[in-house]
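Interim report to the steering committee. The following record documents the input for LysR family transcriptional regulator (290 residues).
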Amino acid sequence: MDFNATKLFISVVQAGSFSAASERTGVPISTLSRKINDLEQALQVQLLERSRQGVKPTYKGQQFFEQSRQGLELLEEAQKNVQSAHNLQGKLRISVPPDFSLWWDLLTAFQQRYPDIKIFCHSSERVIDLFEDGIDVALRMGDLHTEDVIAKPVMTVKALFVASPELLANRGTPQTLAELARFPVTGWESLNYGFFEWGTGPEKVKYEPFFSSNNVQGLCHYAVSGMGVSQLLDFLAKPYLESGLLVELLPDLPKQTLPLHLVYARHKHPSAIVMAYLDFCSEWVARYTS
């Protein structure tokens, strides 16, 4: 099988047409068409459906595209690594939860150690598909509900109740969850999910937020502004607590905890770059939590 023809096939699929691929690669359209025809004959499979609107992969072509793209990335990474003196080189594609500010410090430190590794970081509420979305490692919060990945525990974060000193001066300091629920509350809510109940041990209390959002920075802003109480993850609340802008409420109650895992595809052997990232995360988190 022609290695270069496979690279050109990937370029055509990504570009959506022979003309666009020609502009990106600098390879004439006639050469692109001939190379891919030769590739289809060698594989004895039609890879592309051609039309006036452009091209799109057939079912078999899509399978070949996804698997060959990953294989080529590994080969190119291997070539760069053996040609470089000692440094890891290549691209790392990761996913983190939205508003996960703790990870920005980790990523900048990672790239300071490995300056030749480029990072694409995807952030979304959606649970991405590692294979289809081409993500090497995802950081996931909470319980995992899949066996298709290898999960490496990283740390556990805690949810804290917080409010501004001004709000407490005006409303008093709640001593129970039931009292807390009578305060103006800001809560996290997505388009399709909102679960407004606090639970610590046997005690469970429902509440109705007057402001809800899937943007954690918005919840922080409302809490600091004295608009209401909020429940924030400990690393988000930490700078506000240390500066005195927020105060922790009900500190003696058991905390809601959420595990963090780094996950990667079970069927895909992790590259040297992925292993470096996994090891660095463990090292960095150990220093952060010590």
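The longest strand covers residues 149-163. The committee is asked to note this result when reviewing the revised timeline.
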